[in-house]
Design goal:
Elements (H helix, E strand, L loop, with lengths): L6 H4 L12 E4 L19 H7 L3 E4 L1 E6 L6 E8 L6 E4 L15 E4 L5 E5 H14 L4 E6 L5 H12 L23 E7 H7 L9 E6 L17 E5 L8 H15 L8 E6 L8 H8 L2 H21 L3 H8 L4 H7 L5 E6 L4 H8 L1 H20 L3
Parallel strand pairs: 1-2, 1-13, 2-8, 8-9, 9-10, 10-11, 11-12, 12-13
Antiparallel strand pairs: 3-4, 4-7, 5-6
Helix pairs in contact: 2-3, 3-4, 6-8, 8-12, 9-12, 10-12
Length: about 375
């Protein structure tokens, strides 16, 4: 299983903006401990996933309770379960009784349908140790559907320390160069969840907002905002156990992202079939056989191709008319593309397949600009 710990530098991607590179993502990244087959999504822990090449980690955190009554203890752990099925139990321990974690407002029950994964402090420590050893690399930890979020923010700040990326003022994270983030961990949180915490200015400087631009209920998507201070992405989990259905859904979602409204966003593609029943790891193995790996590449290419065919930017056309070098334009053009490919059971081989799409993207963009140059010259 190949490892890719210093990929950005080796692939000469450090000067490209974040929305021009393709990176492997880990779906339900914290559910790596052996357990129920309908719960476990990963075989490698966070440190091993990062070494294999994963750079984007989907983490869902809830409070796990051990012990009884006032002597109960609580820890933040990854969990796997649809949020609508998770039970939130208010913590009512009396302050004067012995025991720890008196300020924990609640704990969660994942029932027989769900399960628990890695402990948050260990996962953060894994991330910190990786970037401290690989100074040209970064990791993005996306926290979604979390409970007791204030505690999550505190742990991120305390455990990551100066390895936690902190924006320098109002930054559009999407357009910053890959090398700008080297040696740091980006911790990103849903903008609505952050707003509900009513944080004081500067209280958690490493808390980066993210916005989801895809909305399946609207005919028009949420538009990409070039002045947004945080991360904007376009994509959607397919919510299906059927490989063919996931393929169809992802193709349609990515082609919608190429309409122009999401031109500067990070495209997110889900190559997953996580469900409530059956073995996730067994089903995932089918998604990476020869036929379905080619389907992944085809779906990914369809998302990029739709953007290249429909949205050659005006500034690129003007630059071509002014005689600029098409090869240099290809290096700097920011088109919508599937930047993050989310997967279950991440390993070095799968990450390598995804990372190799960077070369495909560069060639596709160069070809599109060459075609545009050909047309501009009146052929």
């Amino acid at each position: 299983m190949p490892d890719h710990p210093d990929y950005f530098q080796e692939a000469n991607l450090l000067n490209l903006p974040l929305n021009r590179v393709i990176i492997p993502g880990s779906h339900d990244a914290g559910i790596y401990q052996p357990g129920k087959e309908n719960v476990q999504t990963q075989s490698l822990d966070i440190a091993q996933q990062a070494t294999a090449g994963v750079r984007f980690f989907d983490l869902r955190i809830a409070t796990h309770k051990t012990g009884i009554g006032p002597w109960s203890e609580y820890e933040q752990r990854a969990y796997h379960l649809d949020g609508s099925l998770l039970y939130d139990d208010v913590h009512r321990v009396r302050k004067y009784l012995p025991g720890t974690d008196k300020d924990t407002p609640s704990h969660q029950n994942v029932s027989h349908l769900g399960g628990w994964g890695g402990e948050l402090s260990q996962m953060l420590a894994d991330a910190q140790q990786f970037v401290s050893a690989h100074h040209t690399e970064f990791l993005i930890l996306k926290f979604a559907k979390c409970f007791n979020l204030l505690n999550v923010l505190k742990q991120c700040q305390q455990t990551l320390g100066h390895w936690q990326y902190q924006p320098a003022g109002q930054e559009n994270t999407n357009t910053l160069a890959v090398g700008h983030f080297g040696g740091t961990v980006l911790t990103i949180f849903n903008e609505n969840d952050v707003a509900n915490l009513h944080l004081l200015p500067g209280q958690f400087p490493g808390c980066i907002r993210y916005k989801e631009l895809y909305n399946k209920k609207r005919e028009r998507e949420v538009a990409y905002d070039p002045n947004y201070d945080g991360v904007q992405y376009f994509g959607k989990f397919s919510s299906t156990e059927d490989i063919d259905e996931n393929t169809r859904k992802q193709r349609g979602i990515l082609q919608r992202g190429a309409t122009g409204v999401a031109a500067g966003a990070l495209g997110m593609m889900y190559w997953t079939t996580t469900g409530l029943t059956g073995s996730i790891l067994d089903r995932n193995a089918q998604m990476w056989n020869v036929t379905n790996t080619q389907a992944l590449k085809d779906v990914w290419r369809s998302g990029l191709s739709a953007s290249l065919n429909d949205n050659v930017p005006r500034e690129v056309r003007n630059a071509i008319q002014q005689g600029n070098n098409p090869v240099l334009l290809a290096q700097n053009w920011r088109a919508f593309m599937p930047n993050i490919v989310m997967m279950d059971d991440a390993d070095g081989n799968k990450c390598g397949t995804i990372q190799n799409l960077n070369a495909v993207a560069n060639q596709e963009i160069a070809n599109a600009i060459q075609r545009e140059s050909f047309l501009q010259q009146g052929h």
